[in-house]
Amino acid sequence: QVQLQESGPGLVKPSETLSLTCAVSDYSISSGFFWGWIRQPPGKGLEWIGNIYRSGSTDYNPSLKSRVTISVDTSKNQFSLKLNSVTAADTAVYFCARMNGGNFYYFDYWGQGTLVTVSS
Amino acid sequence: QSALTQPPSASGTPGQRVTISCSGSSSNIGSNTVNWYQQFPGTAPKLLIYSNNQRPSGVPDRFSGSKSDTSASLAISGLQSEDEADYYCAAWDDSLNGVVFGGGTKLTVL
Predict the structure, then answer these.
(1) CB contact, 8 Å: A110 with chain B?
(2) Are A61 and B98 within 8 A, CB to CB?
(3) What is d(CA B62, CA B28) in angstroms, rounded to the nearest whole number?
């Protein structure tokens, strides 16, 4: 059973950078699949942020692309999210997940999510 | 405004059959497969249906999915109280080169 666990600060000041890490257990990121970030503002729906493949190739949501960086560390079996110049609109629960590609593009394993609040 | 359109709410009584629609465009549902997620309050979404109509191991066969042109549907038969949750459709969008989600449908079991 693949397990994912998000970690990072729960409070970020406006204009600063949000940084989260997703640790993967019981599956080696080097073995394949895509690894993604999804967020959910309080009381709202899901928004895809972006994906990364083991090679380091990435896809980002166009609406966030200028502020997002997703990276992977296969030696630690984890991947990370950085979102800069945050505002209150970036307050959300952030989920990491494994994505099956190959024309299917579904997220089959999810982390529990971590709430990040943007506030001074 | 979500790229995929779902009704904000749906309801049914125990034992009833309920369907949730998901409308998209040629760049997403029209070109790629549709996936459905179930989410209970305070928890992570769970994959319910993938590749239009496939159920992951452990998902009851009361849940089924279908797709036609640029629309998709999730059907739940024999509705149970524990099915009360939020349901999201999703698909890859070739124009955006990314995943798009529906706005979600809150299912209430009366």
Answers:
(1) yes
(2) yes
(3) 26
